[in-house]
Structures are given as structure tokens and as C-alpha cells.
Amino acid sequence: MPGTSFFHQARNNAWSNHSLFGVCQKLTAHELDAKRTNFSPSILESLNHMLTVDWYYLDALTDGGRGADCLINEMPFRDIAKLAAAQRDTDHKLMTFCEQLGEKDAMRDVKLERQNNGVTHETVADILSHLFVYQTHHRGQVHVLLGQTTQSPPPLDDYHLEYDAPFPGTGFEIPGGKGA
Predict the structure, then answer these.
(1) Does an H or E element contain 120, and which?
(2) Is the peptide bond before 166 cis (omega within 30 degrees of 0)?
């Protein structure tokens, strides 16, 4: 059943974001804002970009009505703690969406409003597959940038299986499920 598979991907996505933000919250303001060679000019800008893209796709998946407006403000958070909280909230919403997803729902057509006033149509399954790859890619970029700071990048290459649950002592919780 696609919902189950996507829920596990959403859970791993949330765990990876939790791990990454745990390290990023230890950075100084200078380290977060320092201009580096990357898609986004700084760690903080990269993390904000990841969040706004999550908002965009989650809005489309849930018929939220904001469309491309989700992407207008490229830096909704300058404070890393508030950004981490917003990412955690979005990750929980994505897990909940995926947990309730059925096979028929996964094939539902979704309209994506693009910033250039264009519209494309994709299936829920294709959007989720794209989103998880997209997030992995951008977390990898931040991971590399962390190597240029005083903090060591966290391991992000473990796909967390049941033996890792309930993530004791990490502060990571799965809504309605296993947690810290």
C-alpha cells in the first residue's frame, strides 16, 4: 500500500530534519549566515528554502489554496529555533498526510501552480517521491556546509528501522506513534 511506504519515507524525512536542525541550532549566528558556495548562499537560507518548498508541495497535496505564494518569502525565519519548530510542524503534517494516504489517493491528480503563472498536474505519488528526493538533496548540501563550521555534520544516511524506535533521548516524536 503506497500510504505505508510514503509514511516511512515521511518519518525518515522528519528524523533526518530533526537530526540536521539539532546540529544547526548549535551554530553561531555568524556560522548560520556566512556566505558559502551552495545553491542558497548560507546554511540559514538553505534551511528556509527547504521549508518553503515543503510548504508549497504540502499545500498542493492538501488543497490548501496558497499555491506559489508559499514560495514568495524566501526567508520566513531568521531565528533558527523558530525555523526548526516550523520545520518540525511541517514534517508532522506530512507524516499525518502520508499515514492516511491510500492506494487510490496516491494516484489522485494534483494541480501545481508554478511561479511563472503556469500550471502542471502530477499525481500525489509523484509529488511525494519528488519531495523526498528534493529534501534529501538539500539536506546533503547543508550537511556539506556544516563541515565548514565548528559543528560536525550528523549522520543522515541511516534509514531508521523499527529497531531504532522509539528514538530514546533524541526528542524526536512521531505524532500518534512512537516517540521520545
Answers:
(1) strand 119-123
(2) yes
Own/partner pairs for 145-149, CB < 8 Å, 24+ apart? 145/36, 145/38, 145/43, 145/46, 146/23, 146/24, 146/43, 148/36, 149/27, 149/31, 149/43
Question: What is d(CA 134, CA 9) in angstroms, rounded to the nearest whole number?
Answer: 12
Element of type H or E holding 23: helix 2-24
What three-state secondary structure class fits 78? coil
pLDDT band at 8 (very low <50, low <70, confident <90, very high): confident
- Model confidence over 121-138: pLDDT tens digits? 999 999 999 999 999 999
Residues in the chain: 180
CB 19 within 8 A of CB 154: yes
3-state secondary structure of 82: helix
Q: What is the pLDDT of residues 61-115, one digit of tens each?
A: 999 999 999 999 999 999 999 999 999 999 999 999 999 998 899 999 999 988 6
Helical H segments across 25-153, by residue range:
29-33, 43-61, 80-99, 103-106, 124-146
